[in-house]
Specification:
Layout: E1 10-14, H1 23-39, H2 43-58, H3 63-71, H4 76-89, H5 98-109, E2 113-118, H6 122-132, E3 143-145, H7 146-149, H8 157-165, E4 171-176, H9 184-188, E5 192-196, E6 218-220, H10 226-231
Parallel strand pairs: 1-2, 1-4, 2-3, 4-5, 5-6
Helix pairs in contact: 1-2, 1-4, 2-3, 3-4
């Protein structure tokens, strides 16, 4: 039961992209923003441009190069730069996984200390955090964005900052999806690490060979299983 989770010194650090929401949803949101900018309110044309970008990405091609090939702008480099900037600056149309919202709510209500550790540009990651309403769960000083802190997840600094912030915690937990970078230092520091399995739409593959220490200690099929895991520690 969630009542058993009344705060007894547990700190849980979450990854953001493809853990709490679908990063593919963010990509499509960005494509729609670029298409809207180029199509000048022509919805049929915007839909066609999104399809071109999506097909390019599925073929491991640059989606904005594909747009340039299709639209033949006079200034190709300027055109691509404008697309990239629009993509990066757009307000994301994204939603939390339903199970993520339920889990965060229950952990927060139970007094578990929550943190977010994510790689990326500060402006883009903060836009995602705001669009998802995550500021209701994560205190500002418990949000570690790689561009802000100056290091990515494959550096111990952010993880150590959490350990120092909660010197009386009895257990630290890291929850993510990417074995290439989400679990190495939490494992090294003796945290419990939980990987959430890809349901088929993650950006980064999980079926990769990783060196010792990179894989999570526990693979979970769903965030819904996390409460059961936490109740057992």
């Amino acid at each position: 039961m969630v009542s058993e989770l009344a705060y007894t010194g547990i700190v849980v650090a979450f990854d953001l992209d493809d853990t709490l929401y679908s990063e593919a949803q963010y990509v499509q949101s960005g494509y729609r923003a670029v298409a809207a900018m180029l199509a000048d309110e022509d919805m049929a044309r915007a839909t066609s441009l999104v399809e071109i970008m999506t097909a390019a990405r599925c073929s491991a091609e640059n989606p904005f190069d594909a747009l340039a090939e299709y639209m033949q702008p006079r200034q190709r480099d300027e055109f691509i730069s404008r697309c990239v900037e629009t993509y990066r600056a757009h307000w994301p149309d994204i939603k939390l996984y339903a199970e993520a919202g339920r889990l965060l709510g229950r952990l927060s209500e139970s007094g578990v200390r929550l943190a977010l550790v994510t790689d990326g540009a500060t402006s883009r990651q903060m836009a995602k955090i705001s669009a998802l309403g995550l500021d209701r769960y994560f205190p500002a000083d418990n949000i570690f964005i790689s561009e802000t802190v100056g290091v990515d997840k494959l550096n111990i600094r952010s993880w150590q900052s959490l350990v120092r912030r909660y010197p009386n915690a009895r257990r630290f937990v890291s929850i993510g999806d990417n074995p290439a970078k989400d679990f190495y230092y939490p494992n090294w520091l003796g945290w419990l690490t939980i990987g959430v399995r890809d349901k088929g739409w993650n950006i980064h593959p999980q079926d990769i060979a990783v060196a010792d220490g990179y894989a999570p200690q526990i693979w979970s099929d769903s965030l819904s299983e996390v409460l059961t895991i936490l109740n057992s520690i």
